[in-house]
Amino acid sequence: MTNRFDHRNSQDWTTPAISHKSITPSDSVDVIPMPRALRIGNVGGGANLALEMSDGEGGTVNITYEGVAAGDVLQVRPIKVLSTGTTVSNIVAWW
Fold this sequence. Notes:
Blueprint: E1 20-23, E2 37-39, E3 48-54, E4 60-66, E5 73-74, E6 80-81, E7 91-94
Antiparallel strand pairs: 1-7, 2-5, 2-7, 3-4, 3-6
């Protein structure tokens, strides 16, 4: 099948994601490659998503998003999706 948009192969924030993978939260494993967004699948066990993010100054900061809903797409670029504090499941990274 021919891709009519093949000439638009540049990746920036205005283009759609071109790939995805399921994420298993881990306090020690980085998300590689760093995604452009995360989609939340289930919130049955709670509604929290804990992330390790860049602090913009060469370090990191942990943040927990509370009240995340199933189907939410968070436009974040985490280093890690932390198992400690994350209660949502079926997380998919887009890039």
